[in-house]
Each structure stands twice: as C-alpha cells, then as structure tokens.
Design brief:
With 175 residues, the chain is of the alpha+beta class. Helices cover 43% and strands 23% of the residues. It has a 6-stranded antiparallel sheet. β1 and β2 form a beta hairpin. The radius of gyration is 21 Å and the shape is extended.
C-alpha cells in the first residue's frame, strides 16, 4: 500500500468517525427534546397485528415505555386499528400510576400482568447513551479493523438476542 492510498484510507475513516459522532450528538439532542416534551405531551407508536397482538412505544412523564398486550386492550381511548398508528396528545388531566411512585421506582421499571408486559426506561438514559456513542469512535482503544473472531462473536450474540425476543413474543401471544 503506497503512502497516498494509506492517507486516503485514514481520511475516510476520520470522516466516518465525524459523521457517526455528529449523528449521535443529534440523536442525543432529540432525546433531550423528547424528554422535555414528555412532561406536557404523550406520544405513542403502536403496531397491532391482525390476531390482536399490540406492540407499542410511548413517551410520557420523562420516560419511554415499551409494551405488548394480548389481546389489545383500550389504552388512552379506543384500541388502535390494525397496522401502525401514531398518536399524540396533551397530558392535562391524565394521571399515570408512576406519578405516585417513589423517586427510585421511577427510573427503570418493569410491569407484568396476565396479558401485558411493559418496560419503562427514562428518557435521560437514551440521551446519555447517544452522547456516549458520540465519543466511542474517538477512543484510543478503538480499532477500525475487526477480526473474524470478533465478527462471529457479535453475530452470535445478535442471533441469541433475536431468538430470545422471538421466544418472548411467542410466549406473550400464547398466553
């Protein structure tokens, strides 16, 4: 490899690092915006399957809640139509069960009912995670070259995670 092609390769990786950091900083800013907005407004994105499985994400009161219902029960009004729906509205007059909880219970929370499972994560966690990702490519220990072993380990962990997710969704669907 001659000196000019090596310099171009280093410059290309530097540009990719800058783009990755910029996208991560923008994502952190959007999570902070969502965090502040969530104290006055709620936002939900729902996916309802034809067999009444409802999977959704909701932002309200400083946290993001991920849930699934079987069968889909009315939540904040009428149940959503089959397919993907987006809904937003004011929190005025809305009372969440989390508002009365102790401060430490508001951070990370998991709900389980016979047909409903929900995970609640604070908005600031996602903002901090995105900001940490912005710093990751500039870390001195970061190596832009990965071995085949690292690739196989990462793919195995990803396959296990997707397998567990599929198993959890099937378990919720059968109950």
């Amino acid at each position: 490899m001659d000196a000019s092609s090596q310099a171009n390769s280093v410059l290309r990786f530097r540009k990719m690092r800058m783009v990755f950091s910029a996208v991560s900083i923008i994502a952190a800013g959007l999570f902070v915006f969502l965090w502040v907005r969530s104290y006055r407004w709620f936002d939900t994105i729902n996916f309802r399957h034809a067999d009444n499985l409802l999977v959704g994400v909701m932002s309200e009161n400083g946290a993001i809640t991920f849930w699934n219902d079987t069968p889909a029960l009315p939540f904040l009004g009428d149940p959503p139509q089959p397919g993907v729906t987006f809904r937003t509205g004011s929190l005025r007059g809305y009372h969440s069960d989390i508002q009365d909880a102790r401060i430490l219970s508001k951070v990370f929370r998991w709900f389980a009912r016979p047909s409903t499972h929900a995970w609640r994560v604070p908005d600031w966690f996602f903002a901090m995670l995105a900001a940490a990702f912005a710093r990751l490519p500039w870390w001195r220990g970061w190596n832009s070259r990965f071995s085949l072993r690292a690739l196989l380990i990462a793919m195995t962990l990803l396959a296990i995670a997707f397998g567990l997710l599929t198993l959890a969704l099937r378990g919720c669907k059968q109950s």
